[in-house]
Amino acid sequence: MVVHPAGIATPSTPTWHPGIDHRCGIDAVRQRSPHTRDLEQAATGVIVIGAGVLGAAIAYALARNSIHVTCIDLEVRGSGVTGSAFGWIGTTRTGSGSDLHRDAIADFRALDADLEGALSVSWAGSLTWFRTPENTESFVRTRQELGFPIEAVDAEGFTRLEPTLGSRPDIAAYAPHEGAVAPGRMRRTLLAAARDLGARVVEAAVSEIAVGNDGRAQVISDAGVFPARYVVLANGLGVPRLAAQVGTVLAVESAPAIRYTFRTRAQLSRRVLSGPDYEIRPWHRGTYLGAESYTATEDPYRPVLRVHRALDAIRRDFGLRNFLELMDFRVGFRAMPTAGRTYLGTLRTAPQVLVACMNSGVTLAPAAARRVLDHIIGAAELAAI
Length: 385
Prior knowledge:
The chain is built from 10 helices and 21 strands. The chain has helices at about 25-30, 35-40, 55-65, 100-115, 135-145, 155-160, 185-195, 240-245, 300-320, 360-375; strands at about 1-5, 10, 45-50, 70-75, 90, 125-130, 150-155, 170-175, 180, 200-205, 205-210, 215-220, 225-230, 230-235, 250-265, 270-275, 280, 285-295, 325-335, 345, 350-355.
């Protein structure tokens, strides 16, 4: 594995053989495609495959800068994995210390300002703690060394921030710069804004991408063949299949995650709370979101048990007597590049194809979109994958 100056890790061993062209030939596509007239068009503009929050942010950034962009997704009207995202805009828990992670909050704030607050972000910060004070202190030191603006607060400071939590930790990590957003609303807002700026959003299944020696790229879909100057793969778990068609193998796993909604008459947290037994944040009036991770190899009933265990811990720590009403429960399968990688760059086998596949997609979407834009307009180069 190679770590580039920006902190983005990519595979170090090529997965193709020199002298062999693994790219899908455009002539071959022309012979089997019923949309041959589209193939004769000039390959201009950018095709973004994937209309989740990451693809939507990229489409908006490009359209905002007068670049002809088409965003293609199998379920444009749905929300996919974005609809099951927790929506924590934070880097203290998962950030690698790369420029991408360090810029994430500033880029998110800039995007929110550009949309005049349409994302409805709550910038109330977050509180994180672990089983022991020693683990929390170690976490704070590590994150501070990576350059994240985080501070340790004692039990008294925690009480000032979250007075309703009865069983409070002796020490917690406070990240006042972090926030939360409704991922589904963010996605819809970005797609609508991109459309208003001239972007085309197409609901279709993408079967193939093709790259020619002349630099032209094409996307073959149920809706026809789309020529492009660049193709951006932002379709999560679908990225490896399309990347493999142009000679690059990417290591991406499916990571299940639970998001649930519950209701209570009591006022709970004011911000994101991430403890060893639960992770919650305010949602709508009287309702809260919770998040849990689990492995797909566990008992199929384990997700439900985990949620009820978290609800029991919430009732215990907040000293609640009333029953917490579970309102919604969903499992999303996140695209998780293995070994902590972040795939953001161009494919060595096909420089016209860009990849944006990463954990914490909601948090990193604005920062990743800016980098894709900078690469396309020539302001900065993305690393090769």
